[in-house]
Amino acid sequence: MTTPHQQPVHVRSGHAAEFDDHPHDECGVLGISTPHGDGVAQLAFFGLFALQHRGQEAAGIAVSDGQRARLHKDPGLVSTVFTPEALAPLTGYHAIGHTRYSTTGGSSHRNIQPFLVETMHGPLAVAHNGNLVNAPALRDELLQRGFGLTATSDTEVLTLMLAAAGGTSWQERLERTLPAWKGAFSMVMLMADEVIAVRDPWGFRPLSVGRLPAGGHAVASETCALATLGCVEIDEVRPGEMITLRGAELIRHQALAPATTPARCTFEFVYFSRPDSVWADRSVHEVRQRLGEELANEAFVDADVVIPVPDSSIPAAIGYARASGLPFNDGLIKNRYIGRTFIEPTQDIRERGVALKFNALGENLRGKRVVMIDDSLVRGTTAGPLVKLVRDAGATEVHLRITCPPITHACHFGVDMGHDGDLMAARHTVPEMVDLIGADSLAFLSLDGMMRAVAAQEDQRDGYCNACFTGRYPIAVGSAQTKLSFEGVLA
Ligand code: SF4
Q1: Considering the entire predicted model, what is its pTM?
Q2: Range(s) of the domain holding residue 75
Q3: Which of 34, 166, 270, 357 has its CB 3.0 to 4.6 Å from that of 216, i.e. a possible disulfide?
Q4: What pLDDT score does 1 carry?
Q5: Can you say whether residue 401 is alpha, beta or left, with left for phi > 0 and alpha for psi between -120 and 50 degrees?
Q6: Separation between Cα atoms, residue 249 and residue 467, nearest integer Å
């Protein structure tokens, strides 16, 4: 096997680490408007169900019947928050929904979305994916103006700014408010008789729109949710675009000029988005396979089997195996139903760390030299236990290959990776990481390799955010805003 674009591969001299890793998913948003009002809450439920991977802490749906808005939201998975009894009162023509992982504000009940307020123009509900980098300043400004705030997330700030904006329509209020928002926002808003969706001018987070088969339209963070609802004519909401859904009507309007250089989040391709989603006209599954192919070209190692860390690394492992000529097989089985448990593991289970989530398939690993593909290394807490699990199952060598470059900087646009100081690659060299993890070797995909996989044509490779790998933020982030930076105000 030849190895073009050969990358340095670092070989170990020592051993291990501990516990849970991976950047945390952001949030999923959904909006629906129908002319007939049949089962709009059920549609929202199934749409949110398809966005569950973007947030498992809480879920909410707000529905309007043209006059009144109703809301149900609670902590938990979509399927547990929305029982038939909870959905039954949510009747109407228009709906928005949200699945939450807390990126700003803690995980308390008051931060669950959508936010619903009564305004002098009727009901207004807001659900938001992303992070505003200037939220602290906007929040202070609201407090100075005499507003009381009940929550600690920036979504309430957006909601109150909108409610207080002057104008004769919600579209006008939005256009007056939007220029003040700096950062990542893919948002849906519910009013008495319409749903409005808007995306920031950089296009950090995905947002797409499609036509429902029985009439009306839906917008969603990912196309997988629109496909679940049977949508056709699916199209991306453009950066800076505002889309109004009103029954059968769909009105598109460029509310803000798109940024000269857009900043789509590369990590959506590496890890967050569901593989059956399409973004920037690229299939996420296909991009992940290409990430694996690029990695095999850059960091080939002679071995007996290529295994993924399931589930997100499966397509990349297929790509690595294909490009390297090595056989692909399962080596780890993930408990797909673990979700978020509120039951504390016993000390014995806790000590076995990743055993809660993964078991090794000894028959596929015994006596084998293994290449293990993972999508990212964040705090570096699970890589060591996973390597140990594979070794304990009989592997003679374990070579770890990561389908993105080292993550060295925190994200300020809606992804919780922790602070710079939490990130393993910000604190250690690759040889040090090899020793800490206990792998026989470790290699990361290069930035160029990642971008070759994300965009086949060289002229398509601009317009992506890579700040967590490079520290070059597409917009000034000011003093680092953390997930809990407002928590000191409200206990
Ligand atoms: S910093 Fe990283 S995770 Fe955050 S938007 Fe940019 S590429 Fe995505």
Answers
A1: 0.90
A2: 27-268
A3: 34
A4: 34
A5: beta
A6: 38
Same domain? 226 vs 310: no
Residue of 279, 413, 461, 473 to mutate, ligand 1, most atoms within 8 A of C-beta: 413
d(Cα 193, Cα 394) in Å, to the nearest integer?
A: 62
pLDDT of residue 350: 60
Q: From the CA of 28, how far away is ligand 1's center (Å)? A: 16
- Quick one: pLDDT at residue 485? 53
Distance 247 CA to ligand 1 centre (A): 35
**Closest C-alpha among 346, 355, 304, 309 to residue 330:** 309
Same structural domain, 421 and 292:
yes
Is 5 within a domain? Answer: no
Structure tokens at 444: 């990361």
CA neighbor of 160 nearest in space, from 198, 125, 191, 109: 125
* CA separation for the pair 374, 444 (Å, rounded): 10
Report the residue among 25, 264, 415 best suited for mutation to probe ligand 1: largest number of ligand atoms under 8 A from its CB: 415
Q: Which residues line ligand 1 (CB under 6 A)?
A: 204, 265-267, 411, 413, 415, 465-468
Q: What CATH number does residue 64 fall under?
A: 3.60.20.10
Residues 297 and 420 in one domain: yes
Rounded distance from Cα 265 to ligand 1 centre (Å): 5
